[in-house]
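User: Please fill in residues for this 333-position structure.
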């Protein structure tokens, strides 16, 4: 388990690198959906360390790119859909989609399009839920839950870790502290800015220790999307270009690799209309709910989200797609 000093050092290193650049679901119900809390409610949780001893932090960062499509090809009554694909920066590699989108922010007429395709951050944690305002009807046998935390709550978590007055890791079994997720609203959107760490230390109870002993901790890396291979990267680029063009999602071309929400696995010829046979990319990990205001310092913009996981592009995207694409391609040339 990393020390608090090691966590602080790595956070500082990440911040300095960010400012310098400026440029799989487990199939269970372990995810605690704090976003379903009623306004004015709060949940008390206790974060636990990652089972991966090589992970300095007690969370894993997830970077996803949302690709909105006009609908699903072949379905006459299809509504707009959004398909999530992993951003390659999540694996420490260059993301071709972001490389193209980054230049759009230099043109005021393309900023809105750039925000739509910019990476979305979320963070995977694990721990106990000690005060549950949801009163869930069905709880998993394993009381160690997973949490999908958005940037707004994460900044509160990180800020306290950098505070010199915090002397022990909040995940320490004896001298750790709980975290209170508080839901309010601001401008018509869910707001978690009043969430905070507890001021009192609390040792894990005998029941909590027994749960860790019997169930073990999650390796959080297991809940990140599988790293795309060469074929998946080509498919992602093809989907990105089709999305910007205002086209519909084509399950025959892409369904083997990245499926639209609610679609089952393809049952036809897996080689039909595919670039080449390849192992199926793992489904996207549990989608994170968006906080009221999601900020990304790399993009230098602020995005307001409605709270729905599969929100689609708004406005006259399909009508303006050709004009926007022409501008984008003109800049590239």
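Assistant: Residues filled in for all 333 positions:
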């Amino acid at each position: 388990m990393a020390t608090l000093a090691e966590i602080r050092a790595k956070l500082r290193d990440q911040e300095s690198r960010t400012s310098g650049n400026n440029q799989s679901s487990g199939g269970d119900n372990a995810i605690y959906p704090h976003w379903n809390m009623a306004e004015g409610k709060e949940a008390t949780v206790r974060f636990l360390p990652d089972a991966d001893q090589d992970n300095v932090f007690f969370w894993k960062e997830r970077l996803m790119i949302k690709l909105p499509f006009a609908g699903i090809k072949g379905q006459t009554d299809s509504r707009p859909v959004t398909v999530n694909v992993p951003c390659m920066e999540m694996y420490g590699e260059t993301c071709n989609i972001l490389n193209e989108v980054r230049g759009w922010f230099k043109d005021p007429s393309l900023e809105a399009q750039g925000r739509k395709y910019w990476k979305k951050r979320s963070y995977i944690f694990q721990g106990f839920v000690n005060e549950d305002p949801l009163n869930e009807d069905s709880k998993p046998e394993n009381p160690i839950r997973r949490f999908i935390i958005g940037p707004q709550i994460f900044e509160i978590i990180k800020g306290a870790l950098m505070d010199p007055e915090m002397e022990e890791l909040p995940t320490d079994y004896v001298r750790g502290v709980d975290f209170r997720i508080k839901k309010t609203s601001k401008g018509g959107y869910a707001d978690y800015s009043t969430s905070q760490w507890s001021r009192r230390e609390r040792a894990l109870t005998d029941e909590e220790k027994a749960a860790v002993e019997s169930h073990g901790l999650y390796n959080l890396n297991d809940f990140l999307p599988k790293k795309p291979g060469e074929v998946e990267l080509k498919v992602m680029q093809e989907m990105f270009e089709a999305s910007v063009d205002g086209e519909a999602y084509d399950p025959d071309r892409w369904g083997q690799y990245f499926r639209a929400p609610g679609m089952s696995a393809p049952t036809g010829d897996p080689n039909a209309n595919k670039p080449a046979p390849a192992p199926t990319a793992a489904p996207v990990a549990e989608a994170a709910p968006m906080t009221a205001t999601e900020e990304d310092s790399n993009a230098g913009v602020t995005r307001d989200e409605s709270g729905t996981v599969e929100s689609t592009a708004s406005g006259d995207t399909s009508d303006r797609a050709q004009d926007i694409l022409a501008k984008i391609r003109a800049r590239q040339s």
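For context: Residues 19-27, 267-322 have pLDDT under 50 and may be disordered.
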